[in-house]
Design goal:
The protein has 534 residues and is an alpha+beta fold. It has helices at residues 13-18, 23-48, 89-106, 126-144, 179-198, 200-204, 236-246, 250-281, 321-339, 364-387, 410-417, 446-456, 459-463, 465-470, 472-476, 479-489, 502-507, 517-521, and strands spanning 2-11, 72-78, 81-86, 111-120, 169-170, 176-177, 225-233, 283-284, 289-290, 294-295, 302-308, 311-317, 351-359, 396-402, 419-422, 425-428, 434-435, 509-510, 513-514. The chain is globular and about 85 Å long.
Length: 534
């Protein structure tokens, strides 16, 4: 049976969502991307004619386009892509026209690329060929398309206070804004309702979801920081490709792709739900505080921005960034075991995350770019370890505390600020990125680092906090400087990182890696979950 396979993808999402320093606009932009990649294609398919969607937007697997009684069938929508089958090219083009109009009207500034590919579903393996061709064509279109140029204003035109482009209206605060920004503001309210369904336990406690960066739990008299967290699954593209490669029957492949897409989305949402439950475990309602440190008047200091599939971005109080990221990664791994179909040919599902901890009013686009770069750094670490003989992929995380300005990418920052030199030796002060779980013969893991952070904040070490903070300078000056510092102040061996590496406790170094600088930096940015009072 001949049909048309249509592949839809949005482009420039990062700049569209994170280009503003106003959280409400980021929220609205994220919601518009979700609408454009998931909701609007379904609505348009319904309007075109007969389809395979149920009333709750789930798929009716009994309705198949090869039976000849459907005008359109959505294969799956997820990961920024929407794959559809149309009975003929006229219906495919009708979809493209309707979709383009809605995008221009409701999400100005958001760009999408679409391609059509003929397919004969009666031929085994034709779905694989058509999809691979469509993805290649889409990639080529992205690189060669004529980019839209905004219409600039005249001398009498007011400038949008968010983008600098011509403004044509005022928002509720009296700011001159463009139509694109106003649409983001309008859709931010709808995003709030969708998020409440995801993190229901938070709102059940009488707390609200923050709409401004100042709502994230600032402490009077202290510097205020937020954590921008970007997480992404490892090798998800290979999982979708494996389904296509291993399933020659087209209908079975469609159902498998659909199941995998829904499973990835459910795993990400379950993990975020568990993050909100972790926060509630730290909630002290009588004193309206989190973990005895973060005062809360009205808002929970946690706000997902992008939460569709394995690609997740959320913002939280800077002191919660590390623990909530670790919680998310752990829960994503666990949720994937039950939500996603197993594949014995592929490694267990894992993910990487980057955490940028910056001052509350730091330019948000740059903070997100840093978080994304840290996530890539963690992924590169996973790939390098796998190439060196690691049998399976694993989850990892990387982070940076931006207490001042940022100049350059994370590689440039680390080369400039985190390289120690003494005598004829050079070493790296950070052990980041680190594995999410302990691993034999590897000391660069989160559980080991977390134990050191905890020990530095307890017992005798807690009483010597100033000396712990002062240890950073000797660590920069090498092994001998650390020994002299410990002798001068009567410090015992440093907290244990690895029984197999006693030199770490004596000198703080193993090879060209420092084992304690990360822990000392993290002392003010790590809160351990504790059960709050009733």
């Amino acid at each position: 049976m001949n049909a048309i396979l249509t592949l839809l993808d949005t482009t420039g999402i990062q700049q569209y969502v994170f280009g503003s320093n106003r959280l409400r606009e980021n929220i609205g932009a994220s919601e518009l991307v979700a609408q454009a990649t998931n909701i609007w294609p379904r609505e348009i398919v319904r309007a075109i004619g007969s389809h395979n969607l149920l009333d709750d937007n789930r798929y009716d697997d009994s309705r198949r386009i090869e039976a000849g009684d459907l005008d359109a069938e959505i294969v799956y929508a997820g990961g920024g892509n929407t794959v559809m089958l149309f009975a003929d090219i006229s219906r495919a083009r009708e979809f493209a026209g309707r979709y383009s109009r809605q995008l221009i009207q409701d999400a100005p500034g958001l760009e999408a690329v679409l391609t059509h590919q003929p397919i004969n579903l009666a031929i085994p393996g034709s779905l694989k060929d058509a999809l691979n061709t469509a993805f290649r064509t889409l990639s080529l279109k992205k690189g060669t398309r004529l980019r839209s140029l905004p219409v600039l204003g005249l001398g009498v035109t007011a400038a949008c206070q968010s983008t600098g482009m011509p403004a044509n209206q005022y928002d509720q605060d009296g700011r001159a804004v463009s139509n694109a920004v106003m649409q983001k503001i309008v859709w931010s309210d709808l995003a709030r309702e969708r998020l409440k369904r995801l993190v229901g336990p938070i709102t059940d406690c009488g707390l609200d979801i923050p709409a401004n960066f100042d709502d994230f739990g600032r402490t009077r008299g202290e510097a205020s920081y937020i954590a921008v967290v970007h997480a992404d699954g490892n090798g998800m593209g290979r999982r979708f490709q494996a389904v296509i490669d291993d399933t020659p029957d087209n209908r079975e492949a469609i159902q498998a792709l659909r199941k995998l897409s829904m499973g990835v989305n459910e795993a990400g949402q379950r993990a975020l739900r568990r993050v909100s439950e972790t926060l509630l475990a730290m909630w002290e309602p009588k004193r309206r505080r989190l973990a005895d440190k973060i005062a809360i008047a009205e808002f929970m200091p946690f706000r997902p921005l992008v939460f569709g599939g394995d690609d997740v971005t959320f913002v939280c109080d800077g002191r919660l960034g590390l623990i909530l990221t670790v919680t998310y990664l752990n829960e994503f791994e666990q949720a994937a075991k039950t939500c996603m179909p197993p594949n014995s040919k592929l490694d267990p599902v894992s993910a990487c995350a980057g955490i940028a901890i910056v001052k509350t009013h730091y330019p948000f686009a740059r903070a997100y770019a840093l978080a994304e770069g840290l996530c890539r750094n963690a992924k590169q670490y996973v790939r390098s370890e796998t190439a060196l003989g690691e049998q399976k992929s694993f989850s990892a995380l990387d982070w940076h505390f931006a207490t001042g300005g940022l100049y350059g990418d994370i590689s440039a920052i680390r080369a400039r600020e985190y390289v120690a030199q003494w005598e004829n030796a050079t070493g790296e002060l950070v052990m980041r990125p680190v594995r999410l779980h302990d691993h034999e013969n590897e000391w660069r893991t989160w559980p080991r680092l977390e134990r050191v952070i905890t020990q530095f904040g307890e017992g005798d070490w807690k009483q010597k906090r100033n000396k712990v903070i002062g240890l950073r300078e000797p660590l920069r000056n090498g092994r001998d400087a650390v020994r002299k510092y410990r002798d001068t102040y009567g410090l015992e061996l440093l907290p244990e990182l690895s029984q197999q590496l006693p030199d770490l406790q004596e000198t703080g170094w193993y090879g060209n890696r420092c084992g304690y600088f990360d822990a000392i930096e993290a002392l003010d940015f790590y809160l351990k979950p504790t059960k709050g009072d009733a």
